[in-house]
């Protein structure tokens, strides 16, 4: 198979392997850390969680990314990206240890959220840097395959890390702090592995400025960088359309995630442990969908093009999600989780490929930061909408049908631009 052949070629590239190792360790740590936060906020026995409380927690943890994102883009186009991976992961390891101590100390929620936010804020630099660096270590001919392997492998690593966190949480009572410290150890490993990459191999091409920008200069650079990134993106309609479609699909995914979380918490389980186990199973099934997307997406792109593949993903979700989800039963909903994993990751692989191939290297950091802002605002907005529509038990046919309509609209809008983009 051509995909298998391309994967073998990619894995022979030393810099690609090292960048992939940084991604795997970093995102595995993300999975561990995010599950620790989710279980602490949602599945702690003393907490009575509502859809509004879930939306509030997501807003606290994700919306500030929209503030950090513009700075990440500007600085990623000025700083050596290898150094971002090294110091960013070292900083996250330290801050995760602080979060673990705060959990043990049973501090007020606002202080806990502030500490958690400090870890996830640094995440914007690392993830945007990984996406911007990938074209530097692979040839353009295999970029789609690299996007199928690398981000999908990272997502699977996050799922694996989350599964490990679920396992520790189920086996050891009051283990949230232990899980957070496990994430800190993985962040430290990611920092050490980044030392295997040469400082300049990931770019950017121009030498970094001698002086770091002051806070005031940083604000000006961020505003100018976002404007330049948006202008650059507006001149590339293929990338703009792919980003728009991905944002809409991310909104759908976020709304369905909140629904699934509430179903696991209140409708399908008698206690927190059982609900947590169901959520872990759903995450694993969705991860299988991510893996399937990594296998089939390059093959689909060869035949349908990138925008054609995104169209197929949106249309498939529009058909299968209501057919499976309206039962509001664990079995069909797990099947829907697989479909969503396949469709969402397939669309993301294509979006990454379009943006990387259509955007100039000097602007990639800024454009991927715009990407991150849209990604997180869409998810938080979906959680807010879900909190208004969902009852406490998570069963809402109107929400499911609204999401279906949005998937269908995305497919129709993309279909109107039927040109083939590869």
Throw out a few tags for this protein:
422 residues; mainly alpha; Growth Hormone, Chain: A
Structural summary, described in words:
By secondary structure, this protein is mainly α. It has a single domain (10-415), classed as MFS general substrate transporter like domains (Growth Hormone, Chain: A), CATH 1.20.1250. Helix content is 82%, strand content 0%. The chain contains 14 helices and no strands. It has helices at residues 2-11, 14-42, 51-62, 65-76, 81-105, 109-137, 143-171, 176-194, 215-234, 237-267, 272-325, 330-358, 361-389, 397-415. The two termini are 19 Å apart. The mean pLDDT is 83.
Question: What is the CATH topology descriptor?
Answer: Growth Hormone, Chain: A
Radius of gyration: 20 Å
What is the tally of beta strands? Answer: 0
Low-confidence stretches: none
Percentage of residues in strands? under 5%
The count of helical stretches stands at 14
CATH H-level superfamily title:
MFS general substrate transporter like domains
Number of domains: 1
Query: Helix amount, in percent?
Result: over 70%
| Separation of the first and last Cα atoms | 19 Å
Give the SSE order as H and E letters.
HHHHHHHHHHHHHH
Q: What is the global morphology?
A: globular
CATH architecture grouping: Up-down Bundle
CATH class: Mainly Alpha
Query: What's the main sheet like?
Result: none
* Average of pLDDT: 83
Helices and strands: which structural class? mainly alpha
